[in-house]
Structures are given as C-alpha cells and as structure tokens.
## 1
Amino acid sequence: MKNKFYYFLSIIMVFTLSLSAQWDEYKPDPQSVLQLIRKEKMKHVLPLAMRNNNVDMWIHVTRAGDPDPLEYEFGSTSGYLIFTDLGDRIEKAVFAGYFGGEGGIEDIDITASVELRRAITGYDYGKQNFSVYNEITEYVSSRDPKTIAVNYSDWIAVSDGISHTQFKKLEKILGPKYSKRIVSAENVITEFRTRRVLREIVVQTNTLEIARQKVIAKIKTIVPGNIILKAWSHQLHHWQQPGFGTQNMFFSVETFLL
C-alpha cells in the first residue's frame, strides 16, 4: 500500500515539475480531459458510491431547459439515466431525448428507442400515448431493484435536480411496486462527486502550480508608487476564488486548460 502511495506521489511530482518549466506550452483538449475523468469515475467511483449506500439502482432524471446540477459529471442530458448494480459491474442505461455533449460519458449499455426519445423531447406531445414509457417500466422490473435512488433531496441542492412534475411522472412510470422502493440519491451523489480519481488529483496539482506562477508573475509587475494596491489586490483575490471560471467540481480542469 505504501509503495502505491509513493508511486502516485511520484507521478504527481513529475507532472508538476515538467509543468513548472513550461506550463504555458501544455494545451490539451479540455473536453478530452473531462471525458477521461468522467469515464474513470464511472468505472471506479460509481460502484463504490452505490454499494456503500446500499443502492441497487440509481435513476437520475433531467429535463431540457432545466439545468442539471450534475451536468459536469454526466454531460448534457434530457431524460432518464439509470445505473444498475449487476454484481460484477454497473450497467448504464440512457432513456433520453439527447445525451452526451462535449466530453460526455461513453460505453452506454442500453439506449432508448426512437419513439421514446421523441416522447421525452416533447415531440407531438398532445398525441402522446403514455404506454411509450413502458420501455422504462419493463427495464426496471426486469432488474427488480430493492432500492432505487432518485435525485431528490430536502437539504442538498446538487442532489435535488428532479422537479415535482418529473417525480410524479417517474412514479407513474415505475408503478406502485417500485415507487415504494424510492429513496433519496443524496448520499450516492455526494460520494460520487467527492471521491477523486488519480487524473483529477494530477490536474488539480497542476492547477495550483499554474495559479502560483500567475501570482508570482503578477507580483513582479508591481512598481512602487505606480500601483493602486486596492485594485491589484481585488484582481488577485478574484483569481484565488474556488471555482474561478466554472461552477462545478471540475473547476480545476478548466482552469488548468486555460
């Protein structure tokens, strides 16, 4: 265990030292980095988050025009993301009008039919037959989860992305049997967002190094008698704010890639 720790630490140090010498020359594609981080979190963190909280299935409901608090974790979505613990792996099903966007996660096991995708996007809404959602009903019943976590919470905003009407619709889709098994996904979401993969740690380490170099470069521009200290301090303080340039857990990725 100790050897693994020193191995990871050495990787971080190598990245930091190389960046220290020429940080402004490294310009990777930000969406590619985000996609890699998302894939690693889905593979390594999601199973732990679900199993540590005794959740067999996690249904994450989103809707176009209503910003999803977990957009940076999953990409742009509109519909139902369903993660099911099959024992040996987590099955990923996407019943959505659209899914993905820049840096969106990949390796989806099951996707919605054309008819269901149209229904979710509101296509010809007045003539919709609710039976089109049987696709989701049958999927859930075939997995028969004992516990279904859904993105609602009365105290954690980022875990409360589902609207009241969406929740009522989900209950109708699931039916009485499975609706009784719904619990809040707040613990799963919290663990999924706060656990870090190695790539995130490396990126955040490099971000701090970039920030340090920017601050030093700014300090060197100070000319006694010619600098308004209050204005300069305000700008420096703005740089140091958590999430500068973003609104999510991946703030370090975007700052790192500026």
## 2
Amino acid sequence: MRKSPLDHLLDWAGRIALTAILAFVLLPFVVVAIASFNDGAILSFPPREWSLRWYANAFAYRDFGAGLVNSLRIAAFGATIALIAGAGFAYVLDRYEFRFKGALNGILMSPLIIPNFTIGLGLLILSAAASPVSPAPDDRPVPSSCVAGGRTTRSGNRRRAGGRGRRGGCAPAKPGPTPVPQASSRPGPCP
C-alpha cells in the first residue's frame, strides 16, 4: 500500500522529534565526557588541552579504587541474580498456565513502567520508617549543659568561646533520656 504525503510528513516529523529528544537527553553526557579530558583545574568546554590527568588522579586515589572494585562486585552479583531469576520467571511464564499468571507478569514488568526515581524514593521512605535508629541524631534539643560564652560539655570539659567541638559545640548525649533544656540567664545561642 502506498503512503500518502501526510503519512510521509508524519514519519519525518516523528523521526525529527525522536532525534531531538535523544539529543536533549544525551547531550549533557557527551559534554561531561568530553570535558573530563580537560587538562586545567577549571572546567572549560571544549578543552583547551587534552589530558588523562583526572582519570589518573581518580585511579591513584585509594578510596576511589576500593569503591570501584566494590561497585563492580555488587554489579556482577546483582546481574547474576537478575539473570538467573529473570530467565527462570520468563521460562515459567512462557511455558505454563497457572492462576495469577497475569498478576505475576504485571509485577515483574512494573520496573519497566514505574520510573526508577519513584521506586528509589519509595524504598527510601520505607527504610526510613522501618529504621530503629533516628536518621538525624543531632536534631534533638540542646542539653542544659551547653552554655553560651565558654561552652561546657557533658563531660565537664571547658572550651573557649566560639570554639567548636567535633560535632559543632556540645558533646553528644549519653544513651538514655535526653534532658529538657533549662532557660539560661546568659545571652546568646548555644550551638
């Protein structure tokens, strides 16, 4: 069947729109990849001089190397589990008929439909709600042992005015109930 001129126009418009969307999505990755070969300490695009300096620095940094190896191990482990489980589910869903086959297929296909950000945000909220540990221990009321001027910690050590401890002023609370802060007659906030 022969296409009408309108069909040809729509085909080309679709191709142009798809190309524009892909360019919009991929262009930042291309710019960052090219800028990573910059020799200078200040980011410039396009690079004035080409260098592998930043890659050498990254691989010379021991924590980066350990993190990279750890990430590759986790990725290999996760990919192996996903391959085995995915192949098994695909085989069962293709070869057998059983109750709730459609529901199982929908659950297994949902990661393709639901954006990864939504899944990650949901897991973050769920893990924060299920965590027995407070995510921000420094958001508790300021203990009464913090006084303005020279700061006194719970251990009784005196600090100079304006000094900061390892957590910004007051020592962390000992396990147990947190005392309610008392009104101080001295002016100024306690950190």
